Structures are given as C-alpha cells and as structure tokens.
Amino acid sequence: xxxxxxxxxxTDVYQPAEDSQLLADAACRRIDDGLVLEVGTGxxxxxxxxxxxxxxxxxxxxxxxxxCRQARERGLEAVRADLVSPFVxxxxxxxxxxxxxxxxxxxxxxxDWMERALSGGExxxxxxxPFLAAVGRVLAPGGVVYLLVSSLTGVDEVVERAGxxxxxxxxxxxxxxxxxxxxxxxxxx
Length: 189
Fold this sequence. Notes:
The protein is α/β, with parallel strands linked by helices. It has one domain (3-188): Rossmann fold (3-Layer(aba) Sandwich), CATH 3.40.50.150. The chain contains seven helices and seven strands. It has helices at residues 3-12, 18-30, 45-53, 65-73, 113-118, 128-138, 155-164; strands spanning 35-39, 57-62, 77-80, 92-97, 139-150, 168-176, 181-188. A seven-stranded mixed sheet has the order 3-2-1-4-5-7-6, sandwiched between helices. β1, α3 and β2 (57-62) form a beta-alpha-beta unit. α2 packs parallel to α3 (45-53). It is globular, with a radius of gyration of 15 Å. It starts with a helix and ends with a strand.
C-alpha cells in the first residue's frame, strides 16, 4: 500500500480516542471468552484489545470498507456490515459498539466516511436506536452488549430505549471530559 492509500485510510477511518479506550477497558474487564462482535470497529482498536486481552474470538464489522481493510491489517476477522444485518441469530456472547453519537444538525451532509463515523443525527441516537432494535437478534442466550454513550446523546434516553427493547442497563464505566461524560452501558436481557 502506498503512502496516499495509507493517508486515505487515516482520514476515512475513525482512529482510537478516549471513547475507544473507555469501551475497550470496560469490555476487556468483563469479557472472558466466547464469540464477540465489535460493531463499527473503525481502526479495529477495541476488537484488537478484546482479542489480545481475553480468550474470546472476535469479529470486527463496519459499514466503511476502509475500516474493514484497516481492521484486517491488524489481523482481525472483519466483515463489512451495516450494524448486525448479515449475522445469524443467537451467534454472539457479547457485542461491543462505540456508535456515532455526536448530535448533528438535520441539514448536515453525510458525504464522507468520517462524518458517518461521528454523526448521530439531531438527537445523537439515530444509529443507536436501530442498533438497539436489532442487536438482540444476534445475541446468544445470556449474551451481553457493551454500548458507549455520551451525555450529549442522553444516557437516560438510551437506557429507556434499551428497556423498550427488553434490556436492563447498568453503567460499568464512565469518564468525564470538559464537554461531555462518556459512559459504557452493559445491557442484558
């Protein structure tokens, strides 16, 4: 891969930040083994941490083809997927997701991969809500979801929506920053 291709990957793929680290730390503390899916893997950082720090087999997925390529370069199994659509029922013991959660003006354009990786629509929950509606299908009995949520998105609203989908939620990690608090929710049925 030449330098221009590498630059394209770096500008088109969400790279690890504080939110990625918080999710990876929480998931690694709570996952022992099993089959784990990371939705929206971006660079593959969270999936790679889970794969190397636990006994789990990890599948990384992202709608962004550049992210899938970057995750594969880390040695991860990566699938191009919109949320959980291609995966079979009852397959995963755990699912981790650091969704696009930044509230975005309605007229903002979704014209590049980085914008899609960050923009959560007006409420910040336009990707989270469909994820919560779909993720239960791919969870094995007793499966668990680790979902990163920002105070900008409304943690209470996400917990309420998760409840509507049959999940109970508990915060297992949080970290405050000047403009937001990030929380990792553990969702179980």
